[in-house]
Design a protein that fits this description.
Helices cover 23% and strands 28% of the residues. It is of the alpha/beta class. It has a single domain, classed as Dihydrofolate Reductase, subunit A, CATH 3.40.430.10. Helix 4 links the parallel strand 3 and strand 4. The longest helix is centred in the first third of the chain and has 12 residues. The protein starts with a helix and ends in a 7-residue tail after the last strand.
């Protein structure tokens, strides 16, 4: 069976999770080099995926109700987050933007098919000029959008499956909050020595680190695709 078919069947089998959890099933999906880098340095773009892996990314988008990135990705890459290299529907574009820095000219805010949802801690002043729905949510202790509150709101708005593409701070935040349920990772045969996809999780020992099981892997073109469910050890309560 082709890797695309394997991953699609596996993802579809996970959808029952969201009904019991009453929040979207969250899939982390991104590309990195063999040494774990996603780019040379923060704020720069580096395309690592081969053509077959890019098609897989677009297939994964079509399998999710929503697709989420952080404001850093919007400012650096100005992505469209559409399904262009696969036959499927465009997921709802969503941006974690605590400080409401998304420019109205961003391509996500110029789409005609869907208004972008901006998740923020600020109340809009009514002057935003792009095609966006601004959703104000509670902030966490660091002044960023509270991820649990964000997922609850997305559930209320009909999002049952959510694909998170990055960047590094967003990926790390979902892992720290134990709110990422699955991982689809593209590993390109390249050494970069740059900016890592996963930052400091602030965990003290190996037993507390997120585990991927069962772990699946297969080559796709020149890239290695790895996927599986994420499991977390319950944190001890003092």
């Amino acid at each position: 069976m082709l890797v695309n078919q394997q991953i699609e069947r596996w993802l579809i089998a996970q959808t029952a999770f969201s009904e019991s959890a009453e929040r979207p099933f969250v899939t982390l999906s991104y590309a990195q080099s063999w040494d774990g880098s996603i780019t040379t340095r923060a704020g720069e773009t580096l395309g690592l995926s081969g053509s077959e892996s890019r098609r897989l990314t677009h297939q994964l988008r079509s399998l999710h109700d929503g697709i989420l990135v952080g404001i850093g990705t919007v400012l650096t890459d100005d992505p469209q987050l559409t399904v262009r290299e696969w036959d499927g529907h465009n997921p709802q574009p969503i941006v974690l933007d605590s400080g409401l820095r998304t420019p109205p000219t961003a391509r996500l805010c110029q789409r005609k098919d869907k208004d972008c949802w901006l998740l923020t801690c600020l109340k809009p002043d009514g002057t935003f000029g792009g095609n966006a729905e601004i959703i104000t949510l509670a902030g966490d202790d660091d002044g960023r959008v509270d991820l649990s509150a964000a997922l609850q709101r997305l559930w209320e708005k009909g999002i049952r499956t959510l694909m998170v593409e990055g960047g590094s701070q967003v990926i790390t935040a979902f892992l720290k909050a134990q709110l990422a349920d699955a991982l689809v990772l593209t590993i390109a045969p390249t050494l970069v020595g740059g900016y890592k996809g996963v930052g400091n999780l602030d965990l003290g020992c190996k037993s507390q680190l997120p585990q991927i099981r069962p772990l699946h892997s297969q080559m796709l073109g020149q890239d290695l695709i790895m996927w599986g469910n994420l499991h977390y050890r319950e944190m001890a309560v003092a």
